[in-house]
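Hi there, hope your week has been kind to you so far. Thanks so much in advance, here it is:
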Amino acid sequence: MSENRLDGTDHLERSIDWKQGLAIALGVPLLILPSLGYLPMYVSAAAILIWGISVLQGFMQSTAYAEMATTFPKASGLPGFAQHVFRTENYKGKYDKGKLIGGFSAWSYWFAWNPVLAIFSILVGGYLHGLFPVLAETFTEYQLALISGLVIFSGLFVVNWFGLKDGAKLGYVLAAFSLIPLVVLTVAPFATGKVELSNITGSWMPADWAWDMHHILILFGIFAIAQWSACAWETAAIYGPEYKNPSRDVPKALYACGVICFFSFVLVQSAVIGVLGVEGVLAEPLSPLIPVAQAVFGQAGTMVTIIMLIAAMILIIQTAYLGSSRAMHSMSSEGNLPRVFGKTNRQGTPFVAMLVIGAFNLVLISMGTPAAILAASAIGYTCANGISLFAYVRAKNHPAFANLERPFKAPKGWKKVALLFGLFNLPLCLVGVVYLNSLEVGWTSTWVGFLVLSLYIPIWLYTQRESRRLKDKPATAPSSDEDAGDLERVPNRR
């Protein structure tokens, strides 16, 4: 049963091992689906190289995150690390600016993962619209996306109500049903000789590519979009408070998922371009795997592919749903969101956060196109990674953290690597993705991204007032025996 804390939030339950954490995070390789046709639009077949470099970037960043996860075993991944490192202990003023920075990083991370639910609900609706003519006659794609989102969110909420362990079991089932066929679909074109190497080497870069400022900014933007997918396996660290042995389980889950992602991202993009060519990919930008399946397996294979992809999308929605709900719980636990978002049920599930996330994504679906939502979400992800890497550097330099036990240690001098990639995210990738958004989907997604991020300021200020009221409560006499019991139950966190 969950234990109450001073801020009114509850502890998460330690119930999973590294294999179960990996099972939940295995939805990450499927994040390539919305961008399979997007990257070749700008960099042609070099998209294969971009994916490989981006996953390697994930190894650089996640090595720092693995150390942080074992240094702060009660922190929930990136959101928890940044909040813990930047806050000022025993702060006496009205507002702790360091705490605001850490909280903003967590909010950015939440906004990075949260829209995955809407993006893939739209894709599910689109596939159903094309797969079943009777549905296409009855519903629009938007209506199918909305219905799909409602059904999937409700189903996942019910399954995960009984705890993260049951969510991991669902991850096993969906991983087997979706990732294995995805591997077959990736390997089969190579095995059957459908991949034409000339499709890759003959269109390595666009003919009009030039290394001017315009194209360099596009490249930074492409890396921001790519890392939203290819570096997202750091989500395996967010379950730190729920691993039975964080010092052992976190690095294993992280690196195992990273290796799977490397081969998956590189080979899937290679197979798609190798079979269709860059022009063929651009002709089917949202679902290029379908014509690949038709070329390799025929019409029957296409049907199987769509069913497999829908299962795959449910898996990544599950990954995002759990990750973003833990981010909200972490923010509430640290006093950076109203404490109601930290409420858990008897099984340790942050159910209030999950309800809010589901409702928010039903609204996001109204934006219509996955590209627009992803573009806004990528802004949050670059901010979250940049600030989290700066948090790692601060944790290595600050005397307050110097003597903490670090069961897993990154190689010597890794804080310089973390600083380098932190600066790569902020400001380079952030500027690049804003520029890329302005070219591709206009300024709407950029404004949506910055609006959602800026909403954190008033929410945070309200939370600080709430926290001060709670902190002052022990100074007054309890109004009832029940209140007195509450005060005895909760320790002082400061």
